[in-house]
Every structure is written in C-alpha cells, then in structure tokens.
Amino acid sequence: MSHLLQKPVQTELSTGVTLVHNVTTQQSPLEYVGFKVIDLAPGATYTESLEKTECCIVAVTGKINVTEGSESFKHLGTRDNVFEKVPTDSVYVSNNKTFTVEGETNARVALCYSPSDKQLPTVLIPAAEVGVEHRGILSNKRMVHNILPDSDPRANSLLVVEVFTESGNWSSYPPHKHDQDNLPDESFLEETYYHEMNPPQGFVFQRVYTDDRSIDETMAVENGDVVIVPAGYHPVGVPDGYESYYLNVMAGPTRIWKFHNDPDHEWILSRQP
Length: 273
Description:
Blueprint: E1 5-6, E2 11-14, E3 17-23, E4 34-40, E5 45-49, E6 53-61, E7 64-68, E8 71-76, E9 90-93, E10 98-103, E11 107-115, E12 123-125, E13 131-135, E14 142-148, E15 159-165, E16 170-171, E17 176-177, E18 179-182, E19 186-188, E20 190-198, E21 203-209, E22 216-222, E23 226-229, E24 236-237, E25 243-251, E26 260-261
Antiparallel strand pairs: 1-23, 2-3, 3-4, 4-11, 5-10, 6-9, 6-11, 7-8, 7-10, 9-12, 13-14, 14-15, 15-25, 16-24, 17-26, 18-19, 20-23, 20-25, 21-22, 21-24
EC number: 5.3.1.30
Function: Involved in the isomerization of 5-deoxy-glucuronate (5DG) to 5-dehydro-2-deoxy-D-gluconate (DKG or 2-deoxy-5-keto-D-gluconate).
Catalytic activity: 5-deoxy-D-glucuronate = 5-dehydro-2-deoxy-D-gluconate
C-alpha cells in the first residue's frame, strides 16, 4: 500500500470517542498540515489544547456542540450524510487555546490543523456563510464548499474546502500542483484529502506525481480513506455509478492558493461544452 494512503482506524480514546484518522507531522511527510477524524456518541466529549497550532473543527455529519473559553456554539451540523450536499457548520480555534467538542447526536468531526503563532478570535463559520462554487464542464464537473478559502482572513495558515464530484467525472483536474514557493505564480501548500463515496462500497482513483517522478503513486481510494499530498499533481477520477466527496485541508508558509497545471494536460481547458 502507498505510504500516501491512510486507511481508517478505530481507536477508542475514551467512552464514546473514537479516533478514525490521525495524520501528524511526526508520522507523515507533512510539515504544515495535520488532520484528525473522530466519531462521537451522543453526550461524549473530546478536549484538546492546541499550543502552537490552529484548528478548524468541521461538523462532517451529525450534530455537535463546541466550547472554547467563554465561547460556546450549540447545535452545529446540518446533515446526516455528506451526500445531502448542503454546507455544514465549522468553528475556527486559534493557537494556545483549549476546545471541547461534544456529540449532540452520533457525529463525525474533522479536525484540521496547521502551525500558528498569531492568536486570532475563535469564530463560528456557519453553513449559511459557506460559499458554494460550481467548477468544470463535460466530464470535469464538481461542486465546492469554501469553508476557509484564502479570501477569508479568519485563519493564519489553514485553507479548508469540501468537494463533490459527479459520477464518471474527474476532479482536481486537469492535474495541478502547488509545491513551489514562487509567488505570484505558484504557492507552496501541502494537502490532505479525506474521501467518502456514494454508495459507500465504491472507490475512486487518485494519482500523486511530481514532474521528475520522484513521487508517482496511483491509489485505489475507498470510503473513509485519507490521501496525503506533500507535493506534486493530485487528480481524482470517479468511476461511473458512484459520487465522490472529499474534504481538503491545505497549509503552507503563505496562506494563498496559487496552482500550476500540468502543461501536458492543460489543453483540456480549451474544450467547449
């Protein structure tokens, strides 16, 4: 199995709290991005102190309550299944703060991390404020929920988006990369992909490759898997009959998304619907 593909685990952290994924800078080739998925039973709580790290807490499914200091956000979460395709609620918490997430119902929560040394206010990112964007034509159609885009100043490093790709379509396509600190042409951003499929027995293919092929991995990705993108191009192909969801976390030295398309495949952008 590729070292860039992480399968879900089921580690009980405490009563009603299950760790599903834990991508850290110590256990992966990433320096700027960390990522966890936890499942919460009703009434179960998860508490974490961030130190020199910021976190975006995403209510992937189910309902949760989030508390940080005097801030308390109740009844967060808008869907029981990501393929309801409606935006969800999130909370941003800055470095050197402690937060608690409580399951109001059975819930799946994504915790998205990046290094931070400038403390910012804890803020709710309600579903109503999440921008919805439709991209692509022909067999390259997808819908994007911009939870923390680079135009949003409420984070130091983190970029967080959700992407829904239609059956038989390609996403993160034409292949693009953002692994050079070469602004204004390209920014350096590491990335993780948390995947789900509909129906859940499905799979997608994701390739991660660099120009010199020092990285060249093609992975069959199943429901609940995480793909780690330290560098390179990273397209996703969705087989006929299945829909794809993924949650992207990006971070790097500069909080801006400037990508570079693979010149061999950029020509597809000139096609007409």
